[in-house]
């Protein structure tokens, strides 16, 4: 699949000397949903802002649908819709005027039917004549999304789009994202709600301290790093693990009523059969068992922690 956005050796150093991005290279495929994850200050918003032409890069080369974002700014920017973290729009304008104005900024001719469709999808049609200042925070967020979609972009950036919004908007938002992807729009999102990335994204990128530390298909990432837990609910509580079982990747809950066994789904031998045999030898009976996949959030925290530890050791 061809790349609709190509980022090559991108770096950004601010006047203060702070390096926000370090030699980032990334291709985003046409029509995919790409989730960019990272802790606060990792460089997510800086990278999005550079691609969208809001912040100048210190070095590197970026194209959007084949257009250089600096040399051919207008053509590149016309391909992109951006929903920023901050709510920034004229509070005295009506919803309809604001969205129509955004469309006009990109030189697009009026299209009443398309604008109505967007506003209805975002439950804004009944508010079309309301001034922005009269809307709730959630409604203002909907207006930002409508503005970003007003010029029919092929690429949509969503920078923390559901942070601090109600559950209804979050549900509507993801339904709309799925619909956009079906129409061929490429979606790039950053989010603190990692379960949303786990549900929605085709690929995951993890950025930490300005460096892109991983880009992976979501399914492959979950298979590769998503270790499983087998939780055994015991018939009788244990005070401690028998000495003979302490070499196993086992832990005992504080109440002594559950054994938790960690295993790698990629290994040829999970060791579960041997574990059951050893438990039987020691007379440890269980009444229930269940398995649990390691979540994307746990994988993300582990990756960022490992990188932070490696950076600290390198500095020493």
Number of domains: 2
Q: Estimate the strand proportion.
A: 25-35%
Series of H and E elements: EEEHEEHEHHHEHEHEEHEEEHEH
Shape descriptor: elongated
- Point out poorly predicted stretches: none
Largest sheet: 6 strands, mixed
- C-alpha termini separation: 42 Å
Overall CATH architecture of the largest domain: 3-Layer(aba) Sandwich
Strand order, largest beta sheet: 6-7-8-3-9-10
Radius of gyration: 24 Å
CATH topology of the largest domain: Rossmann fold
CATH classification class of the largest domain? Alpha Beta
CATH 4th-level superfamily of the largest domain: P-loop containing nucleotide triphosphate hydrolases
Structural class, please?
alpha/beta
Please tell me the overall pLDDT. 86
Please, how many helices?
10
Keywords: ATP-binding, Nucleotide-binding, Transport
Organism: Zhongshania marina
InterPro entries: AAA+_ATPase (IPR003593), ABC_transporter-like_ATP-bd (IPR003439), ABC_transporter-like_CS (IPR017871), ABC_transporter_ATP-binding (IPR050763), P-loop_NTPase (IPR027417)
GO molecular function, one term: ATP binding
